[in-house]
Design goal:
The protein is of the alpha/beta class. The chain has two domains: about 160 residues, 3-Layer(aba) Sandwich (Rossmann fold), CATH 3.40.50; about 70 residues, no CATH class. Helix content is about 35%, strand content about 20%. About 45% of the residues are buried. One of its GO terms (biological process) is peptide transport. InterPro entries: AAA+_ATPase (IPR003593), ABC_transp_ATP-bind (IPR050319), ABC_transporter-like_ATP-bd (IPR003439), ABC_transporter-like_CS (IPR017871), Oligopep_ABC_C (IPR013563), P-loop_NTPase (IPR027417). It comes from Candidatus Brachybacterium intestinipullorum.
């Protein structure tokens, strides 16, 4: 049964890592988003189950970040419904959203980990700070458990962000999010600014989070990372989902013409700069920008 009541945690249903959560991490139906008179998303249906990783791809400006921010209450929906961890959040006030996020139902991992990390705090202190908001009586246990889940070496727990690599900082940011035991983790391009070895670190971290029962919505241009971690992939174009399915099928044998062009245009480790990328951007109608879209 969907809850619209005060956003506090139901600990009988969600009892920490390894739990067998019964309700969906995310359910979106017929979502529309507008900026002024411009409709940037329409007819969006999306589900993320506990422990599932759903990848979202699309060209820059396709509305991916708008969708992520709407799911987390940072942008208002113009129509449709959003349920997070069994709670109907459509229409929440800002105060309700703040309480909902503090209660740990949903967390956001940014492209730049420094956006969520205090440069003055050590890795352990940063994660502990987040855990205290949700689990004041058991913050240390939750913080250390999160740091262990992301695989950060204990020797680095007392290091500050400036002393860590990009991949290590992103792991701390993910640990900070996981320390509140979220049902849903939304990751917006978490590996795009990292080198290859750091990307592998973060992929392993997100895999561990999913195994612990967290549902993950992963926005990424990195098809190698998506192929390694995503269970399903959705393709966003023109403000709508034009293709969806198992990751291996969408990335390996796409059906929609736009998906084929998009995948051909995105560089991978074995195809770093294909000429087709430039041809698609310059002449391919499927990749042409549209005034309806917003970053």
């Amino acid at each position: 049964m969907t809850s619209t009541l005060t956003p506090t945690r139901d600990r009988a249903v969600r009892v920490g890592p390894g739990r067998a959560a019964q309700r969906p991490a995310l359910t979106v139906r017929d979502l529309a988003v507008r900026y002024g008179t411009r409709e940037v998303l329409h007819g969006i249906d999306l589900d993320v189950a506990p422990g599932e990783v759903v990848g979202l791809i699309g060209e820059s400006g396709s509305g991916k970040t708008s969708l992520a921010r709407t799911v987390l209450g940072l942008v208002a929906a113009a129509a449709g419904t959003i349920e997070v961890d069994g709670h109907l959040v459509t229409g929440f006030t800002r105060a309700q959203w703040r309480a909902f996020r503090r209660a740990g139902h949903a967390q956001y991992v940014f492209q730049d980990p420094l956006s969520s990390l205090d440069g003055r705090l050590t890795a352990r202190a940063s994660v502990l700070e987040g855990a205290r908001q949700t689990f004041p009586a058991a913050a240390v246990r939750h913080a250390e458990q999160a740091l262990e889940t992301v695989g950060l070496d204990r020797a680095l727990w007392e290091s500050r962000p400036a002393e860590l690599s990009g991949g290590q900082r992103q792991r701390v940011a993910i640990a900070r999010a996981l320390a509140v035991d979220p049902a849903l983790l939304v990751c917006d391009e978490p590996v795009s600014a990292l080198d290859a070895s750091s990307r592998i670190e973060v992929v392993r971290t997100l895999t561990a989070a999913a195994r612990a029962g967290t549902g993950i919505l992963l926005i990424s241009h990195d098809l190698s990372s998506l192929g390694a971690i995503a269970d399903r992939v959705l393709v966003l174009h023109g403000g709508a989902i034009v293709e969806s399915g198992p990751a291996a099928e969408v990335l390996g044998a796409p059906r929609h013409p736009y998906t084929r062009r998009l995948i051909d245009a995105i560089p991978t480790l074995d195809r770093p700069a294909p000429e087709s990328r430039h041809r698609a951007r310059e002449s391919g109608p499927a990749l042409a920008p549209t005034p309806l879209l917003h970053p």
